[in-house]
Amino acid sequence: MSEDVKMPQMGESIAEGTIVRWLKQVGDSVKRDEPLFEISTDKVDAEIPAPASGVLSEIKVKEGETVAVNTVVAVINGGGAKPAAGPEPAKPAEPRKQVETAAPASKPATPARPAEPKPAPTPERMPSPVVTGSPSAAAPKTGGVEELRRERSSPLVRKIAAEHGIDIAQIEGTGISGRVTRNDILSFIENRGAAVKAAPARAPEPAREAPPATAAAAPARAPQPLKVPAVIEGEIGPPPFVDGDRYTIEPMSTMRRRIAERMVESRRTAAHVTSFMEVDFTKTAKVRDELKGEYLKRDGVRLTFMPFIIKAVIEGIKKWPIINSSVWGDQIVYKQDVNIGVAVALDWGLIVPVVRNADEKSLLGLARGVNDLGERARSKQLKPDEVQGGTFTITNPGVFGGLIGTPIINQPQVAILGVGVIKKRPVVIDDAIAIRQIGLLGLSFDHRIIDGAVADQFLAVVRDVIEAADYTS
Predict the structure, then answer these.
(1) Pairing mode, strands 354-355 and 340-342
(2) What pTM was estimated for this model as a whole?
(3) 434, β-bridge pairs
(4) For residues 374 and 399, is the Cβ–Cβ distance under 8 A?
(5) 105-108 long-range Cβ contacts below 8 angstroms, 24+ apart
(6) DSSP classification of residue 321
(7) Does CATH number 2.40.50.100 belong to domain 2-79?
(8) What does the DSSP 8-state code read for residue 305?
């Protein structure tokens, strides 16, 4: 028995995934639920377990390739399949001879093989569809796949397209495998004239049969890197190198492209302003010192400053609920749930898992949740649902010694808190110099709906809770 291994759907809005790395090779034995390969999607990087035990007999999708969900990427043969494969090849050879002599109809099948020369003309025809087909003629072959992927763009993109009467297939997407992103369709709407002119400008290029033939071969191997120069020349400027420069070019990972897209989208959407406040963590540091040994010994949980900061943020949100809202057109959506995203730095990028209903958790519960999400983020065990639905985000550059930062808002949220390094500093208290645990907090907020006074008053609540070390609520 054999078992097909399919590209899983890691969330409703996810239409495809990229094979990052195979953890097993052809011929390796695998056990059910053992990690088989790593994938990268719009939402999360994850290890995918084997659906059955057996031997990995075939890998259909190579590392770096992007395929639609439910595509068969590998085949696992059951435990008894591998030994059976040995004797079978010898025996089938004899039956085949019997079939050939017993059924003359099989001989016409061999004359049918002369049809194989016909593929020779097809390769000659193939270059022309590939050359002229990048915009139009490719529709029957590669174009159909690209159009399908565009159709699988997010529901928001499809909604915007329907409202403006736009055919998504007209737009050249910058997302994975040409998917049309929100930024793509908004730019298309804003610059319709320029976009229409740009399309015919590219149309004549495919008419040159010789150059596109080589250009068409490269995109098949690495479609994403080849799109970058076009974007650079068309929107940003000339390439950042000249003849004689020494440089290396490598494509962005799926996660890196997603981060880039989200950051640019956020800067374009929100009116970013950042306020800073100095906070005395001395009393909170003492509480942490008292509890961390107990939490570690009794519960196996490491206690950092993050759960205390989350507690203080929750108190601030209770007094200033607009910090926990979103902008929807010309309306403000106040979120009843407090779902705190905590940014986790990875070797290959940044991800923000979410502690759901943080306002209902104790200090220990928050510590346990933060630790669990952080560890699973680093081991690529997060589920898509665990990185969505956040209503407020905290990022901690201070863990690397950063004094403070001006973080970019995680859309569709309206604020994000940056935590600087917490360390002993000399400060003046009651006209005397004292050594205190001081840290800086930086709140980036959307000035469309949050005024500076509100942001500072929210920060003041956070500061007061931390300085009083009052975490009873």
Answers:
(1) antiparallel
(2) 0.60
(3) 427
(4) no
(5) none
(6) G
(7) yes
(8) S
Tens-of-pLDDT digits for all 473 residues of the chain? Answer: 788 898 887 765 577 888 888 999 998 999 888 889 988 876 677 888 888 888 999 899 988 888 888 899 999 987 544 443 433 444 444 444 443 433 344 444 444 444 444 444 433 333 333 333 333 333 333 444 455 445 556 666 776 777 777 887 778 777 655 677 777 777 787 776 444 444 444 444 444 444 444 344 434 444 444 344 444 434 556 888 888 899 898 888 777 888 888 899 999 999 999 999 999 999 999 999 999 999 999 999 999 999 999 999 999 999 999 999 999 999 999 999 999 999 998 887 788 999 999 999 999 999 999 999 999 888 888 887 888 899 999 999 988 888 998 999 999 999 999 999 999 999 998 899 999 999 999 999 999 999 999 999 999 999 999 999 988 76
The set of catalytic residues is 447, 451
| Integer Cα distance of 424 and 446 in angstroms | 32
Q: Which fold has domain 272-468?
A: Chloramphenicol Acetyltransferase (3.30.559)
Q: Quick check: 446 and 424 in contact, CB under 8 A?
A: no
Do residues 180 and 201 lie in contact, with contact meaning Cβ atoms separated by under 8 Å? no
The DSSP string of 199-220 is HHHHSSGGG-SHHHHHHHHHHH
Q: Identify residue 136 by its one-letter amino acid code.
A: S
Q: How many other C-beta atoms are found inside a 10 Å radius of the C-beta of residue 464?
A: 14
Burial class (CB in 10 A: 0-12, 13-18, 19+), 329: exposed
Structure tokens at 143: 């174009």
Which residue bears the tokens 């992927």?
149
Question: What does the alpha-carbon distance between residue 66 and residue 254 come to, in Å, rounded to a whole number?
Answer: 10
